[in-house]
Amino acid sequence: MAGSRLDLVSPPPGPLLLVGARAGHDLSGFDPALTTIVQGFRPDHDSLQARGFRMRSELGSDGSAAEPPAGSAIVFLPRARDLARARIAEAARHVPAGAPIWIDGQKTDGIDSALKEMRGLAPVEDVQSRAHGKIFRVTVPQGDWLPPDWTARDTAVDGGFVTRPGVFSADGVDPASAMLAAHLPDRMPARVVDLGAGWGWLAAQVLARPGPEIVHLVEADAEALACARRNVTDPRAQFHWADATSFRLPDPVNGVVMNPPFHDDRTADPHLGSRFIRAAAGLLTGAGRLWMVANRHLPYEAALAEHFADATEIGGDSRFKVIMATGARRPGARASTTTGRTPGARGPQLRRRR
C-alpha cells in the first residue's frame, strides 16, 4: 500500500498538494489544514473530506484551485500510464521551480518505468523501496521540463465522442456496453438512470430511442462525468457526480441501464456489481426494468434473486451476459425461494429467453 511508504517523506513546511491520494492511504502525518488533495473518485473524495482535508476533483491549469499554492507535492501513480503522466504534469504546474515532488507507486503500477523516465527529465534523489513499490523525490527544474504530451488531452473516439486519460474504456466503446445497447428495446421508458455512466456512450444510445423524457447519468469519476457532459448535450440528460452504489432520487424511475465495474482500482471486487444491483432495485418502481451486462463468470444470480422478482438472460456470448430484471424488491423484503431458480440447481440461476 502506498500509505506504508509515506513515513519516508519529509515535505518542507507549508502547503502540500497530494494528487491521487485515496481513502485507504495513511495520511495521519499530514496536517489537513495545509493539505490539498486532488481526487475525482467520489467515494474517496467524500471520505477524505470528512477527515478534514481540503478537496478538489481537479486543478485548474492556472493553479488557482490549489488554494493556497503548494510548496511541494506527492503524486500517487495509477496503473494507466497516460493518467500517471498527467498526474505528474498536473503536480508540476502547481509547485514552483526548485520544489520537491515525491512520486509513489507499486511495481504493478509501473513505478520502475516512471523512475526511469523521470531520471531523464529532472534531478531524482532519495529512491526508497518498500511494500512492493517505490517512492522517490524529484526536484522541479526551471522552465518547461516535461514533454508536452504528458498533459492530459482529449481522445476522439468513434461517433464524435471524447474521452480523457484514465477513464474507463478511454480508447473506444466498451464491447460489453455495445452488446447491452444492442439488446435494449426499441422504445425505452420515460425515466431512466444510467448507473456508472462513464463518458456517456450508453446514455446517448438510450436517448437516441423514442420514449425517454429524462435520463440521469450517474458517475463517480469526475473526469468521466466531465466527458459525458461534453458528449451528451441532449437537454433531457441530467448529470450526477455520485457513488452509484448509494445513489437515490426523490421519485422512482421505470428503467435502469448499467455495465457495472467489478474492480476497485487494481483490486477485483465481485461484490461491487452486487451493490450496483441493490442500488438499481432501490431506484425502480415495482414495474420498472433493469437492463445490465456483465462478464459471464461473475456470480450475480444471488443478488438478482434477492433484489428482483424475476431475472432473465436476454442475450450474450462466451464473454458477456445481458440480463433484464423486473419486480424490484424494497430493501429488506425477503426474496422468493423459487423465483429465478432452477429446481435441483446449486444456487440461483437466471432464466434464459428462448
Provide keyphrases for this structure.
8 helices; 354 residues; alpha/beta; seven-stranded mixed β-sheet; Rossmann fold
Summed up, what is this model?
The chain contains eight helices and 19 strands.
Task: Explain what you see.
- This protein has 354 residues and is of the alpha/beta class.
- The protein folds into 2 domains: 2-150, 3-Layer(aba) Sandwich (Rossmann fold), CATH 3.40.50; 155-352, Vaccinia Virus protein VP39 (Rossmann fold).
- The chain has 8 helices and 19 strands.
- The protein has helices spanning 42-50, 81-93, 111-119, 175-182, 201-207, 222-231, 271-283, 301-307; strands spanning 16-19, 35-38, 54-56, 72-76, 100-106, 124-130, 133-139, 155-157, 161-163, 191-195, 214-219, 237-241, 253-258, 263-264, 267-268, 284-295, 308-316, 320-328, 351-352.
- It has an 8-stranded mixed β-sheet, with helices on both faces. A 7-stranded mixed β-sheet has the order 3-2-1-4-5-7-6, with helices on both faces.
- The longest helix is centred in the N-terminal third of the chain and has 13 residues, at 81-93.
- The chain is elongated.
- 43% of the residues are buried.
